Amino acid sequence: MNWELKLQLAAHPLAYPLVRGLGRIAPVVRVPRVGVVVSDAGIAKQVLNDPAHFTKTGPGSPADLWTPVVGPTVLLNMEGAAHAELRRKLSGLFTPRSVADLCARVADEPVQRLRDDLAAGPVDLVRVVRRLVGAVICELVGLEPGEAVAAHAAGTAITSMVRLGRPSLTPAQVRHGRQALGTLTRPAARAYADGDPATVPGRMRRLGLTEEEALGAVAAFVLTGTETLVSYVPRLVALLHDSGWLDRLARDRTRADDVIAEALRVTVPSPVMLRSVAADTEVGGVRVRAGDRVVIATISAARALGSFDPDRPHPPDVRQLWFGAGPHFCLGMPLAYAEIRAVLDAVLDCAPLSVVERRAARRVLIPCYERLVVRRG
After folding, report:
1. How far apart, in whole angstroms, are the C-alpha atoms of residue 120 and residue 139?
2. Where is the signal peptide (predicted)?
C-alpha cells in the first residue's frame, strides 16, 4: 500500500473508499443524505463555472457550514456582485510584489533555519511547515510571530469539525468555532483599527475594505490556508522522495512548477467541494432541483488521470481543478505557491535526503502526515 493511500484511509477510513467507489460507478451519482456526487473533471468544471445554477450560499453549501462561525462576508460563503467586489478589493494583497514582500518578511527566517537544521541532523518537516504557515497567519491577522503554533491550532480547530455526511455544524461546534476564530480576529480587529499599512488588516483598510469585510477575509485565509499547506508540503517532499524525483529536481529545477502542479493533482488539497443547486437543471445527465446538494469529488476527478508522473501534461479539465474554477478560483494561489517554493528550494538545497520516519495523521479533514522526518544523505 502506498503512502498516499495510507494518508487518505487514516483521515477518512469510510468516506474515502465511498467517494472513490462512487467515481467508479458513474461520473455523477445521487447518494441519499450526501447529495449528488460528481467525480468527473469536465463536469466538475462545468458546475464550478455556472454560479447561476450552483451556488455557495444555498442549502448544503459552504455557507451552511461557515456562516454561523465566521459571519456572512467571507469569500467562502458569498456569491454575485458582493463577492466579486470583495475579491477586487483583496486582489492587491496577492500581486507578485505583495506576495514576495510578505514571504520575505515571514518565510525567510524559518526557511533558512530549515536549511541549517537539515545540515545538522534529522528534521520533522510537518513541524517546520506548521510553524511557517502559522507565521503567515500571524502576519495576516496581526499576531506576534511567537503565536504561530497557536494560530495554526486555531484554524485546524475549526476545520476539523467538518464531515462529508453532515451539511452543517452543531450549536456546540459553532460555539467552539467562534471561540477559536476569536483568538485570530481580535488582534486583526485591533490592527485594522490602527490602520498601519505594515499590517495586512491595516492594508485592507487602506484598500477600502470595511472592518466586517477585513475580518471575514482573515477568516477565509485561516480556513483555506492552514491545513491545506501543512498537508501538502510534506506530502510533496514524500512523493518526490518515493518517486526518485527529489534528486532529479535538485539537479534541474526548471521542472519545479510541473512537479508542484502534479503533486497538487495527486494530493488534492481540496478533496471535496460543495455547491447548492440554485435553479433546476441537470448535472452530467442527472436532473437536480433547487436546494439539492452537489458534492464535487475533486479527489476522484483529479486522481483519475493516474499516479504521480510530472512528465505527463494535465488536460484542460484537470488543470488547477484543486484551486477551483470560475468566480471562486483560489485568490490566495500566488501566496500558496510562494510558500511551497520557499520550502521546496530549501529542501532541494540540502538534497540528497532520505525519509527516516513517517506517520499518518488520523481523523483529520485534509489527509496529512502527523510526522515526516527527513535527513541529509
Report:
1. 29
2. none
Q: Which helix (H) or strand (E) segment is 129 a member of?
A: helix 125-141
Q: Left, alpha or beta for 376 (phi > 0: left; psi -120 to 50: alpha)?
A: beta
Q: pLDDT tens-digit profile of 100-148?
A: 888 888 888 889 999 999 999 999 999 999 888 888 877 777 777 777 6
Where does residue 113 rank: exposed (0-12), middle (13-18), buried (19+ CB within 10 A)?
Answer: middle
Q: What is the pTM of this model?
A: 0.90
Q: Name which of 190, 166, 186 is nearest 178 in CA terms.
A: 186
Name all contacts of 30-36 with Cβ < 8 Å and 24+ positions apart. Answer: 30/286, 31/295, 33/165, 34/164, 34/165, 34/293, 34/295, 35/60, 35/274, 35/292, 35/293, 35/294, 35/295, 36/283, 36/286, 36/288, 36/292, 36/293, 36/294, 36/295
- Report yes or no: 260 and 15 within 8 Å, Cβ to Cβ: no
Distance (Å, rounded) from C-alpha 308 to C-alpha 302?
Answer: 11
What dihedral do alpha carbons 3, 8, 9, 12 form, nearest 10°?
160
Cis? peptide before 167, omega within 30° of 0: no
Torsional sign, CA 286, 292, 296, 300:
negative
